[in-house]
Design a protein that fits this description.
The protein has about 130 residues and is of the alpha+beta class. The protein has one domain: 2-Layer Sandwich (Alpha-Beta Plaits). Helices cover about 35% and strands about 20% of the residues. Helix 2 crosses helix 3.
Length: about 130
């Protein structure tokens, strides 16, 4: 009887650890302006396999992101967001993707004076352009 109880407790603990082991929460800065931006940013983030929560605040430009780190990471989520046309703190959308945004969604590109590193598409070289 004791063996069965100990086995059940061990199985339960293993299940709890397995459920919560991969969950990670991050805050990500994403640039945008309006409710349409919010919907687009959150949709792009949630489309990444492993993302369970994406909630962007247009006032602070910060997105609360919860994901299974066994399935994805922040860079994959940010890559999906920049493909939708929105810059993040770490990655910049292509001009073509940004230009496809509705005019109300054209935010001030704070990193516009930074040049893109051609070898690492989407990765910003923080050297100011002269």
């Amino acid at each position: 009887m004791k063996t069965k109880v100990i086995s059940l407790v061990a199985l339960f603990m293993f299940g709890v650890v397995a459920v919560f082991a991969g969950n990670k929460v991050e805050k990500v800065k994403v640039y945008g302006n309006c409710g349409m931006c919010k919907a687009r940013i959150e949709k792009a983030a949630k489309a990444v396999d492993g993302v369970s929560l994406a909630n962007w605040d247009k006032k602070t430009k910060m997105m609360d992101l919860a994901f299974d780190d066994l399935k994805t990471d922040v860079k994959k989520v940010e890559t999906a967001i920049v493909k939708a046309g929105h810059d993040t703190e770490m990655l910049k959308a292509t001009d073509a993707a940004y230009d496809k945004l509705p005019s109300c969604c054209h935010y001030d590109r704070v990193n516009a004076d930074m040049k893109m590193d051609d070898k690492k598409a989407g990765k910003m070289d923080m050297t100011p352009v002269k």
